[in-house]
Amino acid sequence: MAKANWGKRRCQRFLQARGTDATYDPDHRAYDETAAIEALILTLNRAKQDEEVVEALQCADARVREHLLRTCPRRNFATTAEWVEGLRSEIFKRFLFPLMRLGPPPDEVLMHRSAAFLTDEVIAQQLKKPRQSSMQSSIGLWIGCCESSKRSGSCRFARCANFIALPSRKKGNRLRFQQRKTSMVERVRLIKQDEDEDQDRAKPGPSIRCAIRNAINPRDAIEELYVDELADAARLQAKLRDLGLRPISTALPDALYELLSDELDGLDPSERVNLVDAWSRGDPMARSEIAALLQRRGLTEEDVSAHALLSVLPTVSAVESFRSLVSSRRDKALAGIAFRRQMVSQEQQLQRSLTLPRPRGKHGD
Amino acid sequence: MATERQIAANRANAKKSTGPKSRAGKARASANSRQHGLAARVALDRERVEAARQLAQEIMDSLPGQIDLAQAMAIADAELDLREARAVSNGLLALLPGTEGLVDSGAIPTSSSNDFAVGVLQLKRIERYVRRLQVKRDRLVRSWLLERHVGGFAGK
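Output (structure tokens, whole complex):
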């Protein structure tokens, strides 16, 4: 965007120079006679030698130059300064005063002069620049945000992207820096996913949010915020409930291999894999076969589960800890609603006590 | 055990170290203590400002004459922070290995348990941040309620 702006300004400076050039060029349609004569006077004022005077006159309009050389030839003046003074007085008398009497040129003349160098091509080029600039800015909105997130994290996308690529905390890990430049696709996916979920939430139907909303019946926007909080916590809880058991079921085949290593090693490798797969899927034949093998070792399926649980205990513990955090967030939201409603009821009581007439005392005061 | 001479040499060497010199190195080092990057803010995020204004307006419309713009904006801003953090948490949970087929619980996840554990730890970290944001928003709501409450009694 900065590059496009710089390019535009550069073009405008060239255009300005072309405009100035056209103003003093007698052969150009944008020629401004008053400005040209004023410029000639200024140039003559600085001239100290005859060559400089001649050079200044060469730049002037042919009509002006011829008139001046005819009425004020060099031979009529003793010095250069006198010649310059004679030229100046002639210019003022013959050209500048009549022009000044006419006043400033009308708008039509000015427009005609502008149109002489602001051609269709120039205008098209100038319009092209902002278009480029806006295009680059819209692309930069995405890329710039994400790239600058190293320092500031300028938008939601960048923030999310930063977190997906949460690095390990090892010092000097180059990967850490590279991971922050997560692919654009991944960033879009994360945001889109959440937006899809938002749409799902907005859909009518027996969703968790609808159920909670119906139960709480929020009275204002503040309570709506709490409903959102509760719905989010409830959805997370439901997901985590299933997720907590996942690591154990993943570790079950490994646990079985470890416990029955001697028995399973005796089998053919493909047969062994098939047996364990079938057992983990809950196939009754495989289960009875494995139960027999376990019984031979004095074990049961519960021992396999316990072994699997022990192997993934840190992960299960982390999931449970996460669940407890989510639960406390949900409880906090409930407490928030309770507090809000308590305050509202107290306010209503206060208003009621203010509006009701006070009971009269014994003496009617 | 290091000798006195080694210790002195280490100290002298440490004094020479003045951090990264290159631009990339400085950028890398500037993010050394970053936890999740969600707390990063920019001076002007037009989308965000517009969303906050809209939410503040919703709050004010639902509570006519009870809340002023500054309070509503503060609550809306805190709420938007909270929503963003929750969105990241939800997205991250969906990216956890083995969560693709969470509904049909018959399938067994095939990804490594290490990735899963790392993902859960990240989620925990973000959840703590979500809690902080929740507390911040609740504190704003409570202060507004208490202010109204105290104002009501003072009026009496």
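DSSP finds 18 helices and no strands in chain A.
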